[in-house]
## 1
Amino acid sequence: MDGDALYSIGELARRTGLTVKTIRFYSDRGIVVPTDRSPAGHRRYDGGAVARLELVRTLRALGLDLSTIRGVVNRELPLPEVAARHAEALAGRIRVLRLRHAVLTAVAEQGLTAEETELMHELAQLPEDERRRLIGDFLDAVFGGLGADSAFAGARRSMTPELPEDPEAEQVRAWVAWAELARDRDFRAAVRRMAEEQVAEQARADAVGPRRGLVAVVRDRVGPALAEGVDPASRRADPIVAGLAAHYARVLGRPDDVESRRLLLARLDSVSDPRRDRHAQLLAVINGWPAPERLAPAFVWSARAVRVRMAP
């Protein structure tokens, strides 16, 4: 047929693969209007109707509503603007679906109760402003009042989760776990104690001269022993404990005696909380950082080694 030919609705259906009922439906709503009617009143369509119906089918498959499609087909709405608007809306729905998928996956993998599932769902869909409020409350609880903001700016940044606008399911699960941990008053109190101890330790170090932090010393001295499977109660651990005790005594500015070792043990017990490592691991997943080193095993080993040698 040439460009001036008119098609019946049945012929148009055969050319497009759509049903007569569907074409009539689009025609009744002004999306693909007939060019003419036969003497018997049957609708007739020009050759451009085929292309218009193909466009309608594509836009429907992309999820556009009929009102918008009518505007595009009738050139009342610019297709690029419509596409951009709907792409943005679709991105929002995808984020919602990812959140739901992450929650359902966690429920299935962790065997959560109905109450735990409800809490996880609530945390997963927190709006941006509420997420920021939760993060700020946690950081203020940990660092508030401990010193000038500049002194803790780096620490605050290193402990701030930044969930991407379009997170992966693993990041959503990590965010929910982080939020649960951050809302835990006992964990907040434990991290606060660590921060206070670090401030006090730094103040003492400043008074007696530069000293390496306890974390770095434990990592260097205990890490190899831990890797070799050295028993913290064995004689092979003696020089390691002596080195840790001597270092901390210098930090305290006092002799390496029973009291300094008692303070060392208290510090080791404080930082050996496994939730500290868990918190760091969750932050790394959320922020897309490399997996952090697990420090709790070295601190647990050190605490046990010191405790054994302080026993009567």
## 2
Amino acid sequence: MPDPTDITRALAARGIAPDTRQREAIGALAALLGSQQRARHAWSSAAFAPQGVYCHGLPGRGKSLVVDTAFELAQCRKRRVHFHEFLREMNRRLVNAPPSDDRLGDVSRQWLDRVELLCFDEFHVHDIADAFLMGRFLDTAIGLGTRIVLTSNYAPDDLLPDPEFHQRFLPTIAQIRRCFTVIHFDGARDYRFGVEAAEVPRFFAPLDPSSRHALRDIFARHERGARIEALTLSAAGRPLAARAAGSLLLWADFEPLCVASRSHLDYLDLAEQWQGLIIDNLRTSALTQSHTLQRLIWLIDIFYDHKRALFIASDQPIDSALIGLEGAHDLSRTLSRLAEMQSRAYRSTLDASGGKRTADAARIEEADDS
């Protein structure tokens, strides 16, 4: 199992020198992963909880960076999952599970089978149905002795903030505080801002001929030989009108993507089918509608978590249009992620696929020449 030095060395290779809270998290994670005595001696005299670590704070403070680094080093049966994917999988299993007095507990135990370390990225609870599911799931995982790491923009006491339902989630909040080391990442720096911009722009404004030309170039560069023609395809079993689709890249207008009634399940399906998405004709006035704004946030979060490429053409710069809007959850996290997705540091699966395609094309050309 990694110790604090291993985790710190791996972070240093990424150009990160841990701040005070990040060092505290490193110590807690090392203790959780099995090096408890060394972690206490080298980093802190605090008594770390043995069951889990809960890292929370503003977006871009390095929570996922530290946790993912420790997770990669852990030598055990482990699983990292984003909250949207987890909910989709659990609900599918619940539908197919046989009747019982504790169906949710049974499905939770099945899901956790052979998982020694579980990492939930971007943990949140906004809905009472999700709260009920997560409460029973965490209770089951703790009872099984599963080691758990949660990253969140929310302190435990701020989960399920709806005053109508918050009281019903208090037992789970108390369990988190009792069984987890809770660490507040309160650094002033958002690591996603101020980084070097990508060599080739990914977001375009306004909606003019130059933006349309840029989108056509992007599609042609990644989908050589593919025709740009309208079609209707499926997203989570529902029709979606698109401008074009290749093997790697989907090109669609904002209205059918986010103004139309869709859920996070649609965006999970799209992120699993394509390595990148071009969002065209985004009229920012539509973002004043809370449902539309929430759908865009879901889409961005899911494509970011899958490390997919995102290209956006809007009537005004998308990041400035989002600032100050209300009516949706986790907008500050989305702004932070958009900053990274425009940077040179963001490496998507489309970049990796494009590099492989270029190399394959070069080998074909060499074979033709010979």
## 3
Amino acid sequence: MTGGAAAKLRRSAAVRLLSWLLAATAAATVAVDVLNWWYATDRGFGLAVRSGWALLRTIGFLILIRHVRRGRAGARPLGLILAVTTVFAVGRLIVPRAGVPALPGVLGFAVLAVLCGCVVWLLYRSPALREHLVRHPGRLVLDRRGISWQEVAPRRPPVTGWLLTARVAAFTYAPLTLVPCLVAIGTILDGRLVAVPTVVLWFGIGIGVSYAVLFSTFFLLRGRAWAARLLVLITVGVIAVDLAFCWLLLGVDGLVRDGVPLVMAAALTLYALRRGGRAARDGGASESPVAAAAARPG
């Protein structure tokens, strides 16, 4: 067997292994969510919203399987943020307001955490997957041969994986802000009509955050140094507003359940920005001009 054939065989085996692992993680997410709902003593509006958000992550894992099989470069940052936020999204469900968690839920969560850890390890430590996850999304191309669907490299400069990770992590700000906002609607249904203006403001901020992140990350991947600083400001602002509203409307329970996942996503965003900038300052050949621009002070 030639070296090229052996490398291709290793990539195929790694892709199949990761695909099955992602499918098992998606199934474990559903199983733990169902177990938690079965054993929960307070099946209120808030638990329904948080459980629904956890179940939506199953779709994320299925999308990630498609990206892995197609060799998309964005699969690594997507897998990282999906695994990290899934652990926190499901973990907050198994802890009741009072008492200890049910043993089946704890065991299911432990299995899910191990699966998510294995997913991240394979994505970032497997040489075969590193060689496989290099392709760009396809798009319609018009040339002399007519219209065809081809893989096309983006026109922006090549970007480091850490900046892609920062972008993906920042895109979770909006849903992680809107989930506790939707949970707070339950306080209105319980008769706290005074909370209506705050919930409406919270919802508007969550929508605005999505556009702000889209704007900043668009220029971040195009080498604009100010975009990295803007993303840091957005991150700090989102944390301050969301934690304040969680405390005001949902109390300590909501602050822990809904604030911690957002803080973790923000920490990952800031860490990814720092790693990209540090590698550029050290003159790392693997970093892109975008990271170098993000590292410059002005």
